[in-house]
Amino acid sequence: MRMTFRCDPRLADHLVRPYPARTALPDWLRAMPTKAHSDIHGRDIRTVKQCPPFVDAMAYGIMIPLPCDIRIEAGGFSWDWDIPEPETAGHPRAPLSFHPAAQFAAAPFANGRSALKFNSFWTIELEPGWSLFATHPVNRDDLPFRLVSGLVDADRFHDGGINFPAVWIKPDFSGVLAKGTPIAQCFAVPRQAPELVFEPFDEAHQQAYAKVVADVLAAPNVYRKHFRAKRGRLTS
Known about the structure:
The protein is of the alpha+beta class.
C-alpha cells in the first residue's frame, strides 16, 4: 500500500508532514505505569499500557498534524502563520475555517454548536480499490475537540484537499493548540465489502476456544507472545 501526499510547491518548506501514528503516542500513555493497585482485586493489576489492542489501535495508520500554533482565548481562535501565498488557485491559506451549526442539524455530537474545519494542506492519493478512513485520534479524549469521522475514496478523489471537521468540546479551554498536534488519524481501508459467514462452533473450535481462554487466564501476555502480528515499519 502506497499513500502519496502532495502539497503546493510554495508551502513545501512550511508544512509539517503527516507522520506515523506510532511516533505520536501521547505523554500520558508513556507516563502510565504498567501496573496499578486495584481495591477490587486486592493486588496490583496490569494497566491498558500492557494491552496490545489498546496501544496498537493508537499506533495504527498516520496522523494529520496541525500546521501551526492555534491560540484559543474566550472562545476565539487566532494564529500567526507567516507563509507565502499558495501558487495553486483555490488553495487555503488559513489553518481553520468553520461549518455553521445547520450543517450538523440534529447530530447529537454537535449539540447545536458550529464546527471547526481543519483545512487540508496535503492531498492524499491511495492505490486503486482503497479508501481513506479519517477519525478522531484513537483514545485521545485529552484533546479539546472531537473529529467527525469520514470515509473518502482517495484512489479517485486525490487532486483536492480532504478537510477535517471537528466539534470543539471544551468551551472553557484557554491556551495554545500546538503545531504538530494530531488532528486526524487516517487508515487505508479496502473498499470491497467482506463476505459474512456465520457458523456454530464445531468440536475443534470448542476445544480451541476453551484452550485459549484457559491460557489467557493462566498467564500474562498470551496474546502478545503468541497471537500479536509483527508490525511493519512505514516507509517514505
